[in-house]
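Example record

Each entry pairs one chain with its bound ligand, zinc ion.
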Amino acid sequence: MLAVTVQGGQTAVQVPLPERKRGEALVRVKRVGICGTDLAMFDGYTDHTGVIGHEFAGVVEEADNDAWIGKRVTSSINFTPSDYPFDWKTAKHHPRRTALGIRGRDGTMAEYAVIPEDALIELPASVSDASGATVEPLAAAMDAVDRLPPGVGGDILVVGDGRIAQLVGRVLQQRHHRWAIVGRNRMKLSLAKRAGGRGEEEANIHKGKRFSRVIEATGSPEGIRLALNAVAPTGTVVLKSTLSEEVQLDLSRVVVHEIRLIGSRCGDLEKALEAMARGKIEVTDMITAVYPLARAAEAFEHARRPDAVKVQLEP
Ligand SMILES: [Zn+2]
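Structure tokens for the complex follow.
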């Protein structure tokens, strides 16, 4: 089958069909998104060498539990070892965890993928394959918003205008927060404004404008520094970027102004899917382009362009 592997580079290569073990389902992948983590995989973000991809929608073709067969699904991406009961929250930090297409387990940027049945989540008919492949990053965006302290006034600042930043904005909008977004791409900023955000000038932050609550989702060291600059004394910054390199920061500002830094990685997919299924969060207007898997090289090139938001592959 065709698949994108770290070692094969950013093109689809022929690999053997994945082997299904006990308790696992064989899923025919219908849609899979390219995210910042996938791009970082080629820069050595983890030591995974196999198939990448973790934001997907597909159909179960084989499973131990017959009830799954024929169902449209997505899944959690962190898995506990098979001798542990599955729970996405504990899986996230388990020392022997595997992560779909990221760490110790082949991913879904392929014609077929093998997924632990416990981690499968059925997609309702109201959620398309394109949206289904966006449930995982939406859950991650929700987790970032969930970590903000409640009862603090003023606009929430989203730093960055890319894939995750756009989803964070939609979650804030769904929850009736007032939010501002700082970014550098005019097209992406207008997408965020259409979703209900207010554009903030980067120059205003350099001139001293501060926010009590900041979510950083730029994927760049520079963005993290801007977020630290933008936060008000005693404020909170939620960090969402996964970077393959180390970042140099002025931490004395964190100490002197008693700032809280909170990391956030993955979220609750069931909760994200529920918001999507009830039509409360729309994501398909964020999809910039869809490529067949065989044209993965072009898709990756497109995903790296400044004006691209979400690029997806269709095996
Ligand atoms: Zn992702």
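The radius of gyration is 19 Å.
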